């Protein structure tokens, strides 16, 4: 989950980056910009999901995600992390104030 959020935020930041809007001056920079643009084009086509993933890499990512979820959230269902928790507040029951009965420490001596 954390990996997914980091990926989404970093993609959002990089989409708005001026690096993609500049024109390349030297051939190395032109090649870099070409590959960066291709990467983000493929990423958009896959709806933000990582593409060309090897089975080993996917297995490693799933293991790390499971380990982090177990370490920080216990054995909870991973789907619970994707929605906002429901909060319930109950009104406390208060005792009536009995003014006629004085507290033992407040007695006049």
Describe the structure.
This protein is mainly alpha-helical and 109 residues long. The chain is elongated, with a radius of gyration of 29 Å. The longest helix is centred in the N-terminal third of the chain and has 19 residues, at 27-45. It has three helices and no strands. It is 48% helix and 0% strand. The relative contact order is 0.09. It has helices spanning 2-15, 27-45, 55-73.
Main sheet?
A: none
- The helix/strand order is HHH
Number of helices: 3
Average residue pLDDT: 75
Structure class: mainly alpha
Termini gap: 66 Å
Helix content: 40-55%
Low-confidence stretches: none
Number of strands: 0
Which outline best applies? elongated
Radius of gyration: 29 Å
Question: What percentage of the residues does DSSP assign to strands (E)?
Answer: under 5%
Task: Briefly summarize what is shown.
With 109 residues, this protein is an all-alpha fold. Helix content is 48%, strand content 0%.
List the keywords:
mainly alpha; single chain; ATP_synth_f6_sf_mt; 109 residues
Task: Give the arrangement of secondary structure elements.
Blueprint: H1 2-15, H2 27-45, H3 55-73
